[in-house]
Amino acid sequence: MELDQKIDLVHELDGHIMRCVRDQNGNHVIQKCIECVPTEHIGFVVSAFQGQVTSLSMHPYGCRVIQRILEHCGGNSQGQCIIDEILQWVCILAQDQYGNYVTQHVLERGKAHERSQIITKLAGQVVTMSQNKYASNVIEKCFQHGDIAERDLLIRRIVEQTEGNNNLLVCLVV
Fold first, then answer.
1. Cβ atoms of 128 and 86 closer than 8 Å
2. Are 102 and 62 in contact (CB under 8 A)?
3. What does the domain layout of the chain look like in residue ranges?
4. DSSP conformational letter for 59
5. What is the DSSP letter of 75?
6. pLDDT (tens digit, 9 = 90+) per residue, 25-80?
7. Contact partners, residue 58, CB within 8 Å, separation at least 6
8. What is the pTM of this model?
9. Which of 97, 102, 107, 165 is found 20 to 30 A from 137 (Cα to Cα)?
């Protein structure tokens, strides 16, 4: 299919983006549009998500679409708006059944300052987060992808938050 045809096809979806994202099959169409059409032609798709990134990140299909946006549009201003909303709500997303995947995605593929913001925000609740079924995976990614200073911050917060407890976690970390 020629690029012009792809662009025309994507524009037929204008006004129906959110319905497609939340649909079992439609979300795959939106993901393909994001993957196959240059970002300068899908601005209206990304715009449809602004202000709804958190709810989409916590949706079983929406989280997949948000991850595709991060992969293909993360370098432009619209993609930055998506990242900014994720960073604003990261403590909630990290604990969510689907939102944790979006958070992990930013930790794995995001810029260093984005990773740092996530780690700093989660460090204050690191013990609680590490005991949560979903957030524990995010905390693991923080240790895997954080720099030495960020890992040190997490360890210090674990020790502070478990001080006085004979906690196996402290023994393992120290």
1. no
2. no
3. 1-76, 89-174
4. S
5. T
6. 999 999 999 999 999 999 999 999 999 999 999 999 999 999 999 999 877 787 89
7. 93, 96, 97, 98, 99
8. 0.89
9. 165
